[in-house]
Amino acid sequence: MAKRIDPKKRSMPKQEPFERVRNFDEVALGYTPELAQEEASRCLGCKKPHCVEGCPVGIDIPRFVQHIIERDFNAGIRKIKERNALPAVCGRVCPQEEQCEKVCVLGKKHEPVAIGRLERFLADWEAASGGIEKPNIAPPNGRKVAVVGSGPAGITVASDLALLGYEVTIFEALHEAGGVLTYGIPEFRLPKAIVRREVEYVKSLGVKLHLDYVVGKTKTVDLLLGEFDAMFIGAGAGLPWFMEIPGENLNGVYSANEYLTRCNLMKGFRFPAYDTPLKRATRAAVFGGGNVAMDSARTALRLGADEVHIVYRRSRDEMPARLEEVENAEEEGVIFDYLTLPIRLLGNEQGWLTEIECLRMELGEPDDSGRRRPVPIQGSEFRMRADAVVCAIGNSPNPLIPMTTPGLSVGKKGNIVASEETGQTSRERIWAGGDVVTGAATVISAMGAGRKAASAIHHALSG
Ligand code: SF4
Fold it and tell me: What pTM did the predictor assign?
């Protein structure tokens, strides 16, 4: 008899919106073992599993799902960790709906298997059970590799090479490891204790970590390379873009990078217990439509704003943010001003932001990105009140390393040029991957690039 499939994913328990806007605790609460088993039972165990092809690091998804059905959670997490050193992180922040779940066979007629939620369940189950398992580590091979940046790409390279017997040292510019996972993604979406747990796991493999070490300043790439056999640069994309409109230097105007770093890394939401101030706006506006814009808007609400607007020049259909995050923001009361373009910021005599002047837009023909181009409606100018603006329209890589490293090829947007297949840069013994190469992208694609680079470095150093 054919298996009867439940058409819907098991929903994940969440904090209620009215409750969660008053705290920074994680919104989604995760599956119980019973919910995880029910969800896993929806999987068809396909002979040709498209989900695996859709996963940038090639996790054996049907196998780990089968282990959940059998309630062998240890075997399940072990299977994931063969390919992914950060399962608790990926289970929370990866856009599975664009990757493994997008191509899940079940998704043709029903909702796909909730692969991300199951991955998260196993990682959390392992942490709660107290024992984080370590895979076998090859004996030391006497080769040393430097990794610049401790975000997802750097952590993946470091753990893959450590397992192969390399002596790996990570150099991190900030005072905490984790890169964008630590400074960029808010506590309510990715608790920092989870990032710390994953970093501790990588350290337990023998990886050394130097904090407060700015490569390009503390030491140049070339000086550091003199002490190592190879280097991987995974320094991320930390240089924020602004709208380049009048008034952006007013007080109360932030880049999303600064706003989220003050809150997440410097604990500005606990000011004055922590000494980083952060404006507690009454009416905040966030420019942009990606996940970072959603994170910024939801942070402003939790900091006590009466009203928070997302100002986006296209419509809801074109927003790049994950649907789940848009829905969370809507449930929490964020107001979405679609088809709206800020053109000027106005302030008072003391230099503080008071108003935003905007233009209404309409959608025209599709542009190079395939999305319909927003076109201004002449004479539609209007003003809205705001005492804080967060600009969340994108980032590019910090120019420090390219500026101080002769011979390192850089693209038009300041990204390091590296082979898509191997991560090899224009310089010998230097590989790169993640956002520093692609511009701001996803955690899992950075990890995929890290995995390819680790394999290429191993190939080059082991002859
Ligand atoms: S494609 Fe979907 S149904 Fe098939 S094995 Fe993968 S998760 Fe299961």
Answer: 0.89
